């Protein structure tokens, strides 16, 4: 079996800029220039200008090594990580990226890399173990079973080493696992954490998924909380550190050969931060390329880092071995004291240059000059020359097909997501109980308000039934909208993170959501109709009851689709709530009760044709009043003629509600599709195939020259 090569990520002259609102001097002057100026400014077209965040970065991240990105706040650490991981797509990128000398982009790196973001949004009702198992099921490890087993056994070895306690030491990269070039195997200088004991070997029949997640739980020290729900701000679950480690475990199990992590230790106590760093080191030791943004690492954490990239104002001021950094900074005039944390020292040196240090107005060099000196010193340094050599001569083995991240078949995704959604609903019964409560409450309320209407005088019946049926149509529609908006707005972030992380595709997610939600949108109106219909005293006829129920079901389904559309189109609930009245009040106005739609303003009359309330209300009214007789006097048909609800029959009106439901349902799907492609770029199969071909294909011309030179030298 052909061994997959370790992967080296290289970039050269990488720049990134975004469009920002121009700080328009003329405009601001106008604003300051009195009322007229303010009015003029309000109508002035917004101008945008480019803001460059990363300025021509050159560097490389080597396999089998833990690389940390350090730098002051705002120096571009997250932007660089996101750009490489393919999660930063809004701005303009220039420069080159390669994986093992093959031309790459952020999108192609996403096919190879795991990514842990700063905000790990995990479904709050899942337990830690379930969240990790989900990752194993939906994102099966990319390596073939043979090499995967080898990797697993290496993990066990490493865990065993870890368990040896102080002095046992973790296994150095290249000793076990994927073979590494000698130059890449960095020295290991870590002590193992005695708390990190491997889980007892599973007994009995254990599935691959259970085994893999048990292993990750053990490696990340999550045994104690493995059956605790993740929780959220309103329903406390695991701690912040445990959540971070769960997110890392979710990426670890995919065995992606590259891992990018944005501040995996922020918000953790010193011990947890050290533990996480040790675990990252252990992962890197298995030949993976691990790159993490770290904030102020302790000296123990600092010792675990192999390579460091220090950024200042979007520029590289150091990229190379951690061991050489302190001397490098000392040579620049910042000697590190014996008892000073080297990470703090480096940080202070850079911060000083950045303008946050003790630079006083009287000091001979200004902060800007110091920053320029640091950048200039880096350009002329030996470390930069060494880095350039690594950039010029990267790992050259092609990316192996088995190294690409895999995604489970759509049917597996659908089955898993449906089961998860059902479990989520069961564990979060408040949502369903509220819906049930609403159906019962409104059924009883309307029933008792209009109790025994059928025994009242004809004119009272006309008024009461009209009001009750209009209320039934609007409440069924609106409650469905609100329930979906509420549920989906909360889930939206989880969906974005998981779909970007390659857990599943949109079709499986969308379908699973419908499989769980649609039955609820059918059962609730049945409950509402069963209570209200008989209390109201609507016509005692089984078929008419069924038609009334069918109308309420159609309105609920339509409300569900509208809610889904709104929640997927607007970014937060407050925007949805602002849009809701603007969209729906015209629907209510043209619902058939408030305005005689046949005689309303001509150029606004079309609104009735897109109002689901109008169709639903008309179906209910015709169901009640067609051929309706009170005390031997037929009153129904004349009344229907007077209020002019249109020519369509009951069945056709119900069908129109369903057509509107279907159209909005499709719009909701398209809106989600737009959301996904906005964040992750186009993910078509053809695109993916092209990106893979580039990574598996021949070397980029940038490196072929080097190959020829090498061959000539050898000759
Ligand atoms: N989309 C954007 N629009 C405008 N400015 C942006 C955008 N993205 C990033 N920036 C700016 O680019 C700079 C770098 O941001 P980035 O988040 O990469 O910094 P960072 O080094 O990770 O900071 P921190 O350590 O505080 O997280 C910041 O000044 C930020 O305001």
TrEMBL record:
One of its GO terms (cellular component) is membrane. GO terms for molecular function: ABC-type transporter activity; ATP binding; ATP hydrolysis activity. Keywords: ATP-binding, Membrane, Nucleotide-binding, Transmembrane, Transmembrane helix, Transport. This is ABC transporter domain-containing protein. InterPro entries: AAA+_ATPase, ABC2_TM, ABC_transporter-like_ATP-bd, ABCG_transporters, P-loop_NTPase. SUPFAM superfamilies: P-loop containing nucleoside triphosphate hydrolases. The lineage of its organism: Eukaryota, Fungi, Fungi incertae sedis, Zoopagomycota, Kickxellomycotina. It comes from Coemansia biformis. The chain crosses the membrane at residues 430-453, 465-488, 518-536, 542-566, 573-595, 654-676. Residues 682-692 have a biased composition (Basic residues). Its main location: membrane. Signal peptide: none annotated. Residues 39-338 form the ABC transporter domain. Residues 139-208, 681-715 are annotated as: Disordered.
């Amino acid at each position: 079996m052909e061994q997959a090569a370790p992967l080296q990520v290289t970039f050269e002259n990488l720049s990134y800029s975004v469009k920002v609102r121009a700080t328009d001097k003329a405009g601001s002057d106008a604003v300051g220039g009195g009322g007229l100026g303010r009015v003029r400014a309000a109508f002035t077209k917004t101008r945008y200008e480019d803001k460059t965040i990363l300025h021509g970065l050159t560097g490389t991240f080597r396999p089998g090594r833990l690389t940390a990105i350090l730098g002051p706040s705002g120096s571009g650490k997250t932007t660089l990580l996101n750009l490489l991981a393919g999660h930063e797509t809004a701005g303009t990128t220039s420069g080159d990226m390669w994986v093992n000398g093959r031309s790459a982009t952020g999108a192609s790196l996403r096919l190879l890399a795991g990514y842990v973001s700063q905000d790990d949004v995990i479904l709050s009702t899942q337990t830690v173990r379930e969240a990790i198992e989900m990752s194993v099921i939906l994102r099966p490890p990319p390596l073939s079973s043979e090499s995967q087993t080898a990797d697993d056994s290496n993990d066990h070895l490493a865990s065993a080493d870890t368990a040896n306690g102080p002095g046992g030491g973790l296994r150095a990269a290249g000793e076990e696992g994927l073979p590494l070039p000698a130059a890449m195997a960095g020295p290991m200088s870590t002590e193992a954490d005695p708390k990190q004991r491997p889980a007892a070997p599973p007994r009995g029949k254990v599935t691959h998924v259970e085994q893999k997640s048990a292993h990750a739980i053990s490696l990340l020290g999550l045994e104690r909380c493995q059956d605790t729900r993740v929780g959220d701000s309103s329903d406390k679950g695991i701690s912040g550190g445990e959540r971070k480690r769960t997110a890392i475990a979710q990426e670890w199990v995919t065995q992606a050969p590259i891992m990018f992590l944005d501040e995996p230790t922020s918000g953790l106590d010193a011990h947890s931060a050290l533990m996480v760093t040790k675990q990252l080191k252990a992962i890197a030791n298995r030949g993976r390329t691990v790159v993490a943004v770290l904030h102020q690492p302790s000296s123990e954490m600092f010792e675990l880092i192999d390579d460091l990239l220090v950024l200042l104002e979007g520029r590289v001021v150091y990229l190379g071995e951690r061991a050489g950094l302190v001397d490098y900074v000392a040579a620049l005039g910042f000697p590190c004291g014996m008892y000073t944390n080297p990470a703090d020292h480096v940080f202070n040196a850079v911060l000083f240059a950045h303008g946050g240090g003790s630079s006083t107005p009287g000091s001979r060099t200004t902060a800007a000059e110091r920053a320029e000196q640091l950048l200039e010193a880096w350009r002329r340094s030996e470390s930069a020359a060494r880095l350039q050599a690594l950039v010029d001569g990267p790992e050259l083995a092609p990316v192996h097909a088995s190294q690409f991240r895999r995604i489970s078949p759509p049917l597996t995704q659908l089955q898993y997501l449906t089961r998860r959604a059902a479990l989520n609903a069961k564990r979060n019964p408040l949502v369903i109980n509220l819906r049930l409560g609403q159906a019962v409450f409104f059924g009883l309320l309307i029933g008792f308000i209009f109790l025994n209407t059928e025994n009242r005088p004809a004119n009272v019946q006309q008024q009461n039934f009209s009001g009750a049926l209009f209320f039934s149509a609007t409440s069924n529609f609106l409650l469905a909208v609100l329930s979906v908006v509420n549920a989906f707005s909360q889930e939206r972030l989880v969906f974005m993170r998981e779909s970007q992380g390659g857990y599943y595709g949109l079709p499986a997610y969308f379908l699973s959501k419908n499989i769980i939600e649609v039955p609820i949108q059918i059962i609730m109106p049945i409950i509402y109709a069963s209570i209200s219909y008989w209390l109201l005293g609507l016509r005692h006829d089984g078929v008419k009851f069924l038609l009334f129920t069918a109308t309420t079901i159609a309105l609920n389904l339509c409300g569900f689709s509208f809610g889904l559309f709104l929640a997927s189109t607007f970014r937060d609930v407050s925007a949805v709530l602002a849009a809701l009245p603007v969209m729906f009040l015209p629907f209510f106005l043209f619902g058939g009760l408030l305005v005689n739609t046949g005689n309303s303003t001509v150029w606004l009359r079309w609104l009735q044709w897109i109002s689901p309330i109008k169709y639903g209300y008309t179906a209910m009214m015709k169901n009640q009043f067609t051929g309706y007789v009170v005390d031997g006097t037929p009153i129904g048909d004349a009344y229907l003629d007077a209020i002019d609800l249109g020519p369509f029959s009951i069945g056709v009106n119900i069908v129109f509600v369903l057509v509107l439901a279907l159209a909005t349902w499709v719009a909701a799907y398209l809106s989600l599709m737009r959301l996904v492609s906005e964040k992750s770029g186009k993910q078509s199969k053809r695109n993916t195939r092209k990106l893979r071909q580039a990574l598996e294909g021949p070397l980029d011309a940038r490196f072929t020259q080097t190959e020829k030179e090498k061959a000539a030298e050898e000759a």
